[in-house]
Amino acid sequence: MSPSATSSSEASQPCNLCGANRWDVLFEAGVAQEGRIVRCCDCDLLYVHPRKRIELEDYRERGEGDDAGWELSPSSLERQNSQIRDYRTALSDVVQHAPGGKVLEIGCCSGTLLGELKTRGMDCMGLEPNGHAARYGRETFELDIRTQILSEANLESESFDVVLLLHVVEHLEDPLEVLSKIRKLLKPGGMFIIETPRYDTWSFKLLGRRERNIVDNWHLYFFTKKTLVALLVKAGFSVEKMCTPGRTVNPSRLLIVLGKSLRLKPIEALGQWLAKRKLNEWLSFPINLGDILRVTAKAPSSRAQ
Questions:
Q1: What's the pTM?
Q2: Does domain 55-298 have CATH number 4.10.91.10?
């Protein structure tokens, strides 16, 4: 688990947080995931270097029915339904902050959380580049979900009371730019809730290259409490509170995580099959490994700030 002693200052993609171009290799390409994972020597941010992302056009149309990718697979829909319980505190905070106000969720997938907020009187909008998931949310919850990413949406500045970014920031090529744009979308004093996997944890120290999120080829950044807070502050937010929330877990999810970590597709397939069975729901239980970080932040209270 100790980082490689090899560092580099080659001209390439600098650290998104501090701008430095000095890093140590944590995992070479192919060891944890397809990309090489490095640690910035100046601020400790972990990221894939060089950064490369799945083609956006491929993502827009992937995932439908039994042959779905993550977005509309049986296990995903089951997982998203359970998130209403997992996010109950955050949802209550949103409603309490701005009753009846405007909420934007970036990367809302099938819109389950926005659907719940809609039932509580909130005015909801979602951005979701996957066309199948966005259509599911529009048809199921009658939501305004646009098949766009933030840079395409042309949203008005200071037009939202709350913005949600849940398990999205780790996929972005330029998190600092996106967070800065989100701050401008919020009304003065607006609420921003961000959640992402956390890597200053015992599970990461124990599992290393087999940790359930580090192996995900879609993840480009791997945050600790220190680096996520630093990124939020640099983007212009003030941090209000932090927590390490738990999750509802069931046999299906456990098998999918195990299959992904061990790179065994049959185990993942078994998890997808089990997700359709009532037994899976009956055996659900809450667990908290401390490997998720949720931060509630605020935009400046006036434009001058």
A1: 0.86
A2: no
